């Protein structure tokens, strides 16, 4: 198997790394992966993951519910209930931040297509990209969406989208700087880029450490704190315009983390921990389990 070894930090270009912790792939294989931190800029990443061409088997689990439509089991039911709520919240955020009721939207990592379909129903012209062939097929069959493979991202026209969204996708992408460059190119001058990612400086991340469910190794290659993601945006010609907490994520991630700990009554303990995380993020939104960031292009 071909392994991705990171020799230079994709943010600052330096190569002074220190091992932070070792995490386990609880979803698919039980394998262990090390998290390293750049000593110069503080960027945290997973070292030694399979390359993009070979990581597919680490997604081959019915538990990986971002690419699943099953309602089987309590965790899946919670996930789908929260997803329905979040579709409305995402649409309101886009309308508010873009100041548009409709326009051209690209959703990268659309999964099974629920968000793309929802925005189509709201009147938007939606394009979508998804890596998983099974998820693309689901989106075509259920929503008649023409979902493209990731290889087609680089071929999209300049300044062709009012909104580009990546909902829990950026942390998966091997070619990080190249993706940021494409995002800048395809976005209209007054368009907005919306990125949602887990937050390794959150209350629950600090509580659970290597058992934190949102490290999700090796699928999550990059681990973005609020300041690190802002620096990536600035590096590629973006200004951070807004950031919003995702408080529901703390409940789901805390329940997962308790399961990984093999705790008794993981649901109840996770709900309690999620409630504490909720209050922590209410006092300081940058301690939220996941964050939504809204970027705009720097105006020359």
TrEMBL record:
SUPFAM superfamilies: S-adenosyl-L-methionine-dependent methyltransferases. This is Class I SAM-dependent methyltransferase. One of its GO terms (molecular function) is methyltransferase activity. Gene3D superfamilies: Vaccinia Virus protein VP39. GO terms for biological process: methylation. Pfam families: Methyltransf_23 (PF13489). PANTHER family: METHYLTRANSFERASE TYPE 11, TRANS-ACONITATE 2-METHYLTRANSFERASE-RELATED. Keywords: Methyltransferase, Transferase. The keyword Translocase does not apply.
């Amino acid at each position: 198997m071909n392994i991705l070894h990171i020799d230079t930090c994709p943010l600052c270009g330096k190569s002074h790394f220190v091992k932070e912790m070792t995490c386990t792939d609880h979803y698919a294989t039980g394998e262990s992966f090390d998290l390293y931190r750049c000593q110069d800029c503080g960027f945290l990443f997973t070292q030694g993951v399979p390359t993009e061409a070979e990581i597919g088997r680490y997604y081959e689990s019915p538990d990986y519910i971002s690419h699943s439509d099953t309602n089987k089991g309590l965790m899946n039911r919670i996930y789908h209930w929260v997803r329905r709520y979040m579709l409305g919240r995402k649409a309101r955020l886009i309308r508010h931040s873009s100041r548009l009721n409709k326009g051209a939207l690209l959703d990268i990592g659309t999964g099974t297509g629920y968000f793309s379909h929802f925005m189509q129903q709201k009147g938007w012209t939606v394009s979508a990209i998804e890596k998983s062939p099974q998820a693309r097929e689901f989106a075509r069959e259920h929503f008649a969406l023409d979902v493209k493979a990731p290889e087609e991202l680089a071929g999209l026209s300049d300044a062709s989208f009012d909104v580009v969204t990546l909902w829990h996708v950026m942390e998966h992408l091997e070619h990080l700087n190249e993706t940021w460059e494409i995002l800048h190119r395809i976005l209209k001058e007054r368009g907005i880029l919306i990125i949602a990612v887990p937050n390794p400086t959150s209350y629950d991340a600090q509580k659970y450490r290597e058992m934190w469910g949102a490290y999700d190794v090796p699928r999550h290659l990059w681990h973005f704190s609020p300041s690190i993601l802002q620096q990536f945006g600035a590096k590629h010609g973006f200004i951070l315009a807004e950031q919003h907490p995702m408080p529901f994520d703390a409940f789901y991630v805390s329940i997962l983390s308790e399961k990984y700990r093999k705790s008794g009554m993981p649901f109840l303990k996770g709900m309690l921990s999620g409630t504490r995380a909720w209050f922590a993020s209410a006092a300081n939104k940058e301690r939220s389990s996941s964050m939504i960031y809204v970027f705009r292009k720097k105006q020359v």
